[in-house]
Amino acid sequence: MGRIIFVCFILFLFAMLDLYTYYGMSGLWSNPRHQRNFRIVYIVLSVLTYLAIILLTYFFATKQMGHRTEFMNFLNGFVFAAFIAKLCFGVVMLLQDGTRTLLGGIQYLTSLFSEDATKEVFIPERRKFITTAGTFAAAVPFFSILYGITKGKYRYTVEKIIIESADLPIEFDGFSLVQISDIHAGSFDNKEKVMAGIQKINDLNADVVCFTGDLVNSEKEEILPYIEVFGKIQANMGKFAVLGNHDYYGTYNRNDAVATKAYYDDFFLSYDKMGFQLLNNRHISLTRGNAEIRLIGVENWGAGRWFPKMETLISQAVA
Hints:
Elements: H1 2-26, H2 32-61, H3 70-112, H4 128-150, E1 177-180, H5 191-203, E2 208-211, H6 227-230, E3 239-241, H7 257-274, E4 277-278, E5 282-288, E6 291-297, H8 314-317
Helix pairs in contact: 1-3, 2-3, 3-4
């Protein structure tokens, strides 16, 4: 019920921002022809956005989380980009309108004590350059998000870091560990492009691969189409993982211990199928020659309404 109320609030806020943005941007056009063209374009885009919201609602309501296509992910990103853009524009305009209202109020109060009965009281007009600035403030996140959901998510990079420690046994000199994180499988929609990232990992010839959380955006079914792909990750001494905050977001009855266990038992099978060993608040020993180090896994540290804090003390994880 809490999620439904939250979604309804977001939809209401989106509609209000949509109207506010429409009337705010209308002031940028003094030429009637340009203003008419703007209205047509804006209304068409708004209608398409609401149709996308309806389609996405049906998509999630019918629990098709494990079968996302490029088109569905684009719609999801487009709606999110539109919301953030209108929110940015709305903040700029709200600051401007708040200032205008304040100045108008001061003028009105001043007129009450003025002997000049002809003194005009008015709310200052909107400044076009501020509205223009708000438009640019909205455009930056809008196009950045669109780039991210279409091209950016497949632009993988490798950052190499050398760690030196006097406590590390000499036998582990040159030991290589590859960390990957925040896969958010529901955002993917192309197995070949995902496989390109897997190949980058395998090219590093890692001794150990550690995945540090957020396998999915929300639902455990998101990873199902990519289990075989991520199962091709190679590591000489093993692959290990912990859960992240988004991995706790799934749809299940949190007040039912049996339902919760069934959900996570099924979720954890995906890690097994991919060849990852879960280290949720526990450890494993890694041996080279006569030396040994411990790899310790601690669950999500953050706490939130839908993202529970699940970590234990490191002293307990190594026990």
